[in-house]
Structure formats: structure tokens, C-alpha cells
Write a structure and sequence with these properties.
Elements lengths: L9 E2 L2 E2 H7 L26 H8 L14 H13 L4 E5 L2 H10 L7 E5 L4 H10 L5 E5 L4 H7 L4 E7 L11 H11 L2 E5 L4 H4 L9 E5 L13 E5 L23 H8 L1 H4 L6 H11 L2 H22 L4 E3 L9 H7 L8 E5 L3 H10 L4 E2 L9 E3 L11 H6 L6 E5 L5 H14 L3
Parallel strand pairs: 4-5, 4-6, 6-7, 7-8, 12-13
Antiparallel strand pairs: 1-2, 3-9, 8-9, 10-11, 11-14, 13-14
Helix pairs in contact: 3-11, 14-16
The chain binds pyridoxal-5'-phosphate (PLP).
Pyridoxal-5'-phosphate (PLP) binds next to α4 and α5.
Length: about 425
């Protein structure tokens, strides 16, 4: 049974904001430094070959080669496992590497993934590439028990969805979908990039595995590409239905993560660079402060857009008329509704005028920075998707996507006001 969200949720006995700074900070390999040392090394030195053999053979703890493991990367993985309420984590070179590895760890040719049509464009393209390996993706307009019932058959193995979709900003009913996947024996993998564990811990709500692009809010400063996979240790990886897990299921709750570490993740070389793991550990310390401010700013800006009459449509999960508002309130425990806001302004031309007229936001295709970011998703993030894929993801020719930063909200509102009134003439 999925649990309801605990607003006083604890991580290692600490409240979330404290855990960001102090959870699992002990590094068994570090010499009394307050931040994780950067182990900028490819390989590790052994006094005796016997010990090398023991570590390489998995009979003793330690590190052999950075593609397989690195203490700085492990420091980031420990923190992410704690903050997502997971059993263990594997950091990856990018968010896309996390999504690819989380899926292929359990799937094989002939299997079907059910996914939301509102997915991030990069995920849609990845799933298209997986088709060449016999892994099919079936899309549903929105991931709900009813829509899953409509496409489900005996080939389906995994449901993949985003906590808050980007940029349509639908909120996923994680407990309801988890109840459905558990009942049908499917795995449930959630992309938590936009919500982050500050707003939502999908594993506590019943998801089996969480993936994240840590390049976004986790890092928070747009200075490193990275991803992470966090496992609950209780996925439904019964070898009858997931035959590639057969060799690993004797490991019990370690099966998924052990296969990942010793399987395609290792063999495709999807490892995170130690320098990037260090930057993420530093960024993580302020996740709560950044999210608190960005969510508050996003709500105020969305409300301002709505009452200004200067835009045709505002999408933001925190707006009173948004259909996902009650669900978001429940699922995010009142901490906020995320930092992304989408507006529509009438035409592609006007969208470009407005984007060019703002002075504060950076024109970039990224999300999750301390600074406010603005883009025209149809021409950037979704440039390689078809019109149908774009519309399913809520990307219209006049859609502008904003990733709100931690600036003073009055400056942001004034900037959008001048851009929207100026661009009109
Ligand atoms: C950016 C993003 C990804 C991909 O992450 P990279 O770190 O760019 O590889 C995946 N999912 C979502 C929701 C994203 O926003």
C-alpha cells in the first residue's frame, strides 16, 4: 500500500532541510574535510595484489577503477539515496543515461513500456531508439489507472512517468499509479527531475525506482551534467516476467542495484565524473532554500500572469483553476508547486518577441538554475519531435517555458510586464 505523504518526513532522523546538509556526510575515505574530497583518479592503488584481488572480486570493500566506483561519486550517491528515501543509488553521466540504464536494467527485446505522452522530449527520442532493440513504448495521454487499463497487455513490463511533466506541468498521482502497477506486476519508474525530493519522494508514495536529471535543480547552478537512479529495493522484478533478473534475484532487495552496477551501467561506461559529483554535493546543500524561493516566485509570477490579461494561457500546478492543484497540494505536502511555469502568447512570432524582450531571464533550453531561464520549447528542447509529440507534451507554437530562479519577484514581474506590454506594440 502506498503511504500518504508525511509533511514532517524525516531523512535519517533529521528534517529534510537539515538532512540536505548532514545526511550521510561521513566519508570513510576522507581525512576530516567538511566537503567530499574530489578523487580525481581513474584507478586505485593497492599495497598488495591479494587485497586488489579481494576488492576486484567483490570480497572486500574498496575501489578499483572509477568507471566502476569512486569515493566522490559515492558521496553524492549516498546523499541522493537518503534524500529520495531509497535503498541505494547509482549516479550517471547524465539524466538520459539514468533513464536508459534504469529501463534496460530490467527490460529485454519484446517488452513494452507504458509512458505518458507528456514526457520530456529527450525521453521520447530515447524510447524511439529503443524500438530498434525490440523494446516498444505505448503512450497514454496522461498516466492514470484508467489510461493504463486501456493499453495494458501481457507484454507490458514498466510504467514510466514524470512527477511533474515538463512543460505541460501535469501532476502524476503516484499512489494511484503505484497501486495499479503493483496489482499488475509492472515496475514503476518515476522521473523526479522537476519536483526533486524537496517537493516529493516518489519511492515513499509507492514508486519502485526514481530517476533524475541532476543537471537541473539538484545541481542547481547549471555547472555539471549528471543523473541519478535511486532504487527502493522492493521492485517487482520477478524473474518469470523479468528474465534478465534471474541471475540476480537471489540477492533480494539488492538485486536491481547490483545488476545495474555490474551490468549495462558498468559496461556502457555511463559513470559520473568525480568533479561533477562534487559540484552536485555542494549544490544539494541549498536545494531546500532554492526550491522554497523558486516555488514562491513561480506561484506569484503565475498569479500575476493570470490577472494581468497579457497572456492567453498560464499553466502552473499551484493556480486555483489548475485541475492538478489538489493532487499537487497533497503530494507535495504544501511545500510548493515547482519552479516551472508555461505561458501561451498567441503566436510563434509573439513568443519570440517576448523572449527577446525580457532582460533578466537567460535564453537557454535548460531548467533548474538559480537564475530564471526562458525558452521556446517547440524550437529547442522539442525541435526533433513531431507536431503530435509536441502537442501531447503541451508544447504549442506559442508556448514559452520558464524555469523560475531565486531573484526578487518584483524585479521578475516588472521585467515580464515591460516585455509583454512592449512586445505588443
Ligand atoms: C533534462 C531532463 C532530462 C535529461 O537530463 P540530462 O541531464 O540533460 O541528460 C530528463 N528528464 C527531464 C524531465 C529533464 O528535464
Amino acid at each position: 500500500m502506498a503511504q500518504t505523504h508525511d509533511t514532517e518526513r524525516k531523512v535519517d532522523g533529521m528534517r529534510f532541510d537539515t538532512a540536505l546538509l548532514h545526511a550521510r556526510r561521513h566519508d570513510p575515505f576522507a581525512v576530516e574535510s567538511t566537503t567530499p574530497p574530489i578523487y580525481q583518479t581513474s584507478a586505485y592503488l593497492f599495497d598488495e595484489e591479494e587485497r586488489h584481488a579481494a576488492v576486484a572480486g567483490g570480497r572486500a570493500p574498496g575501489y578499483v577503477y572509477t568507471r566502476l566506483g569512486n569515493p566522490t561519486v559515492a558521496a553524492f550517491e549516498r546523499r541522493m539515496a537518503a534524500l529520495e528515501g531509497g535503498f541505494a543509488a547509482v549516479a550517471t553521466a547524465s539524466g538520459m543515461a539514468a533513464i536508459f540504464n534504469a529501463l534496460v536494467n530490467v527490460l529485454r527485446c519484446g517488452d513494452v513500456v507504458i509512458a505518458g505522452a507528456n514526457l520530456y522530449g529527450g525521453s521520447v527520442e530515447l524510447f524511439e531508439n529503443l524500438a530498434a532493440f525490440g523494446i516498444e513504448t505505448r503512450y497514454v495521454a496522461e498516466v492514470t489507472p484508467d489510461s493504463l487499463d486501456a493499453v495494458h497487455d501481457e507484454r507490458c513490463r514498466v510504467v514510466f512517468a514524470e512527477t511533474i511533466s515538463n512543460p505541460r506541468l501535469d501532476v502524476l498521482d503516484i499512489p494511484a499509479v503505484a497501486d495499479w502497477t503493483h496489482e499488475h506486476g509492472l515496475g514503476f519508474i518515476v522521473d523526479n527531475t522537476v519536483a526533486t525530493p524537496y517537493l516529493c519522494q516518489p519511492l515513499a508514495l509507492g514508486a519502485d525506482v526514481v530517476v533524475e536529471s541532476a543537471s537541473k535543480f539538484i545541481n542547481g547552478h547549471s555547472n555539471a551534467i549528471s543523473g541519478v537512479i535511486v532504487d527502493s529495493g522492493r521492485g517487482p522484478w520477478d524473474p518469470e516476467r523479468f528474465p534478465t533478473m534471474a541471475k540476480w534475484s537471489r540477492l533480494g532487495r539488492m538485486a536491481y542495484i547490483a545488476k545495474l552496477r555490474q551490468g549495462l551501467f558498468r559496461d556502457t561506461g555511463a559513470c559520473l565524473a568525480p568533479q561533477n559529483a562534487f559540484l552536485n554535493c555542494t549544490g544539494l546543500e541549498t536545494l531546500a532554500l532554492r526550491m522554497e524561493r523558486a516555488c514562491a516566485n513561480a506561484l506569484k509570477l503565475a498569479q500575476w500572469f493570470e490577472q494581468s490579461g497579457l497572456v492567453d494561457e498560464v499553466r502552473y500546478p499551484g493556480l486555483a483553476q489548475n485541475p492538478g492543484r489538489d493532487l499537487a497540494e497533497r503530494e507535495f505536502g504544501g511545500r510548493g508547486f515547482g519552479a516551472l511555469v508555461a505561458i501561451r502568447v498567441g503566436s510563434r512570432e509573439r513568443a519570440f518577441e517576448v523572449i527577446d524582450a525580457v532582460k533578466i531571464p537567460l535564453r537557454v533550453s535548460n531548467i533548474g538554475d538559480t537564475k530564471t531561464l526562458i525558452t521556446h520549447p517547440a524550437s529547442t528542447v522539442f525541435v526533433d519531435n513531431t507536431d503530435e509529440e509536441r502537442e501531447a507534451a503541451g508544447v504549442w507554437s506559442d508556448t514559452i517555458r520558464l524555469s523560475i530562479g531565486i531573484e526578487d519577484i518584483d524585479d521578475l514581474i516588472a521585467d515580464f510586464e515591460q516585455a509583454l506590454t512592449g512586445a505588443r506594440n
